[in-house]
Design goal:
By secondary structure, this protein is an alpha+beta fold. It contains 49 helices and 29 strands. Helices cover 51% and strands 13% of the residues.
Amino acid sequence: VGETGIFPAAYIHLKKATVTNRGPNETAVPLEDPIVTEVTSTLQEWALLWKQLYVKHKVDLFYKVRHVMLELIDLRRQLLSGHLTQDQSRDVKRHITVRLDWGNEHLGLDLVPRKDFEMVDEDQISVSDIYKMHLSSRHSVQQSTSQGDNNKQRHGEPCRVPVPHHLLVNLKSFSYNSIGEDTDIFFCLYDLREGKAISEKFMVRLNKNGGPKNPEKVDRLCALFTDLSNKDMKRDLYIISQVIRTGRMLLNDSKKGPPHVQYRRPYGCAVLAMSDVLQTISELKEEKDFVLKVYTCNNENEWYQVHDNIIRKSSTKYTAPSSNYGLIISLQLLRGDMELVRRENPLIFSKGVAITRKLGFPDVIMPGDIRNDLYLTLERGDFERGGKSVQKNIEVTMYVLYADGEILKDCISLGSGEPSFPEYRSFVLYHNNSPRWSEVVKLPIPIDRFRGSHLRFEFRHCSTKDKGEKKLFGFAFTPLMREDGTTLSDDSHELYVYKCDENTTFSNHALYLGLPCCKEDINSCPSIPSSLVFQRSSKETFWISTQLSSTKLTQNVDLLALLKWKAHPERVMDILGRLRHVSGEEIVKFLQDILDTLFSILDDNTEKYGPLVFQSLVFIINLLRDSKYYHFRPVMDTYIQKHFAGALAYKELIRCLKWYMDRSAEVVRQDHIQEAMRALEYLFKFIVQSRILYSRATCGMEEEQFRSSIQELFQSIRFVLSLDSRSSETLLFTQAALLNSFPAIFDELLQMFTVQEVAEFVRGTLGSMPSTVHIGQSMDVVKLQSIARTVDSRLFSFPESRRILLPVVLHHIHLHLRQQKELLICSGILGSIFSIIKNSSMDTSVQEEVEMMVESLLDVLLQTLLSIMSKSQSQEAVRGQRCPQCTAEITGEYVSCLLSLLRQMTDVHFQHLIENFQSKEELKEFLLKILCVFRNLMKLSIFPRDWNVMRLLTSYIILTTAQHLSPALHKNFTQTDFDFKVWNSYFSLAVLYINQPSLQLENLSPAKKKKVLDRYGDMRVIMTYQLFSMWQNLGENKIHFIPGMIGPFLGVTLVPQVELRNIMIPIFHDMMDWEQRKNGNFKQVEAELIDKLDSLVSEGKGDENYRELFGLLLLEKIEQETWRETGTSFVTSVTRLMERLLDYRDCMKGDETENKKIGCTVNLLNFYKSEINKEEMYIRYIHKLCDMHLQAENFTEAAFTLLLYWELLRWEERPLKEFLHYPAQSEWHRKESLCRKVIHYFNKGKCWEFGIPLCRELAFQYESQYDYQSLSWIRKMEAAYYDNIMEQQRLEPEFFRVGFYGRKFPFFLRVRTSSDLLLDAFACFTVSTVVMMFLHHSCHYSEPQGTVVH
């Protein structure tokens, strides 16, 4: 039988899910990507808050949140589609988390800690890691975007390789109407400051109609200028575009040359400043169009610098276009290595984009990047006129020829985007015997053809007569490689020009190759007979410049000599010494060859060449530490693992390394020693691999000798670190270099030794460092960074090594914390340790490690936190100098470290902790410290409001710690050893804990409340049970906390949680009972309870349920006491007071009329005076009532109100304390000031009849004091009042009597009449006031129980 339901099956999609707690309260968790689940639940939560934004008129945020919600829905859809690659999926998740965090912050929701874009389970990771994740999430929200993974390299690891930029240039069109010939357009990047191009050229060939010559390139005229570094992006860069036409000599003169003869001629130039467009294209993720005007050069002699003239706006040297036409290009900036760019932008590369490289190598040379490009610049020439009346039109033709005279094809490139040519023809400058071309040509010559090849330049005069002949009149040449095997140097070269004519053929190239090509070459040639075929033209010269970008050929003589050392074995010492002068680019290009050479030299004569080979090896290793060559470290690693064959090298390397270390105490200059220390990691890689090779070849022979030599080497390491470097800065740098490199050798040692053996090596080394923290701040930092990298190493992850290393690590941290030095680094180390311990918490060894940390760190952590918190508080008070040790970051770091440690502690750890105290005084000091730290965590804003995960976890750890420590408090400080300070500290913490905002579940949404209850329960109730239990354990010592703890406990009972109130309210009966036993009454409890109740209710705490529960529970307890009559009377009074206080609060908070608020205040004021006789509270409410009257401009009523306080005072000299806004003064002076104020208010209210008696009273006092000046003033005031009564007109008020009968009226109005109110307030209600009150209450209380009678 099929199942039936209310929905058609075709419209329902069942999601896979895990169901727990099956039944009516079961929970279903979907089996989908957690981030999809989070997006779903978050959007549901946002939807309610989003609508409220509109209601609250936050329209701008409303639309922003709407936009983000739509983006999240779209991103969620992309994830659910299942069509994304791993990289795309990761990118989508990154975008989702950024938007989730942004929305949560702006909507006032909690920050979500994440790892790899997913919410973390706080039970699975350490508190320190959770804290760091909160910081990371906060940073990503503040930045509004996140660049990939937020994991940071810590503790001084090598700097990251810079990310290259790539500029995409796309030629959309060249709109012109005046050329009408084929054109070549060249684009390049030009550095104005250096005055040279930094990139190859991108070439576009267009026909006379403006379209691509190659039809396949329609809409594909684009190039990618690659490998631009951050430094390049800060240069004064320009995009230079040069337009070269191919056609007649003169564009507008058809007579100059026949139409079939084509010349390359300069036409125009355009420039675009990168500084103007860089910000625009950096922000966009798509192409942006720009228009470039094409300017023509006024004088062809200055064509070589026309772009400079345009940039510098030398307008006399170029002509602007007559109409607004030119080049339309689009630009886009891409980031990342080329593989990533290819993956992320497949459409760009599908168009056949031309890869246009930098001239020379980029800042980061990638392994496997093979290049062999010779960039040749045709600079200039000086030629004779040759008997002609006008100057020549010179064209240069260049060929690349092999040793046998064969012209190499496809070895000349004018620019990327077009195929290579077998020959190159320069553009022609009209009538110019000293042309300056400055045209760059790339020669991609194969490696195997480079040696023996040469370049030949043929110079022709291009006639513009009818035949249009190109007459050969000279040539020049240059070989590409010298006799010593080095290539043509990167420099400008002046070449000799040899004469020839148009009939000359170069079939036998040997005829000129024996001639000198340049001035430098003439010394190597023998005496040249004058009868040769080619004669040099002494007055003509030709300049070129070259730049080689090759990973296979070198221009360096020293490097070539090293690679061919066997040809000159007697020069090996000198050759090795000169290796330091070889450039880094040359070394990394030939890295494997150089290393092979060095170790072959070492094998040839170890004793003779060992130290020099060692120095050379150190130099190369340190070269790879440079960020420019850092990517070649994998090449070095591959070489060591697969190509290195020096099986005997380890002996010499260990010997040299030990010799260097042993010399550190003697020599003054230690640069070479420091370099060796920096190269320690790769030296050990070579040592270990060499030993492995030797061991394989000999079946493990000389194992003991190897172990012994390593032991001796570590003795030397310990010797260097143990030296006192305070008096020697050089030695300090040596020790710092050693400590920086030391942790990098652990993995190599683990290949040859057991974990315990390596750990012993490391412990001995770290233990040899001076324990004092006064050796210098910089050395302290280096020492701790070395320890930090040790903790982060693979070695420390083994439990057997931690058992050995942890004591020495904790020893150094303990010393620094005691001295309050380098706190940030210490906290990082501790965070790493806690993270490892949390991940290894299943291991039995972890309990021992936690025990070790408790003994070493707990006390000093508490002391450090107290110090930091006190500095932080004083800093907030003073707002003076900024102290780096007092920042919120450092406080948060150490709080997370303390919480991590406490969280790892078990019952056994707490038991051992308590037992290890030598005396109760030590235990007391510890308890006071930890309770003080916990109280500060409650009071200070250590974690931001939206870090709810961190706040709840902190509360949970404090609760469990308090549960573990409370038995020790009860056991040691209860009876004869009672200590008020410790107990008071405990109770204060409990009160703060229960009242902290993050635990008030009533303020949370239902979903969030359920989540908190499921994970932690209601921690307030748990702490309340603990508090009640500890209170009961006090016994007769309870009296010490009366009345001090009444206010705090009352605050706890006002928390709106029924179970909590049921637990705590009976404590007040206990307090009354103990005071009754001691004093025969409970006046203190009564007074304190009433005082605190008033202030707490006025703060918004308490409700009607609390009032009823308070009376019910206490009356039930009191019934069994002998003092039940007084107790019942007191409880009844308090509940009645609460009733009035709640009415007063509701009245003040609501939109009630002023007269209703006044009536409510009068009611409360009378209760304090008549029923519970609390004079201080009575006076407070007198002043509150007075302020209300003044605000309503009821000056007469204000005066009558203040008279109530005035009547309580006497004309005596009794001193009075400072109270409200009154200063400390005598009772006489306070009554005098009050009297003056009341007289002033009667005057403003025009009730002079009531002011005159007060004037008389004051006059009598002044007269008795002989204060005639004041007496004169008051008599004049009295006289003025008489005048006012007679002369000024006043309205006669009318009075009404109004009664309020029924339970539905507020308590302060029930069964009262307005005349009662008038008498109480010494004021009168006008007709309008009474009518308003009547209308108000008749509208709101129209039920039968409430009747208004008038």
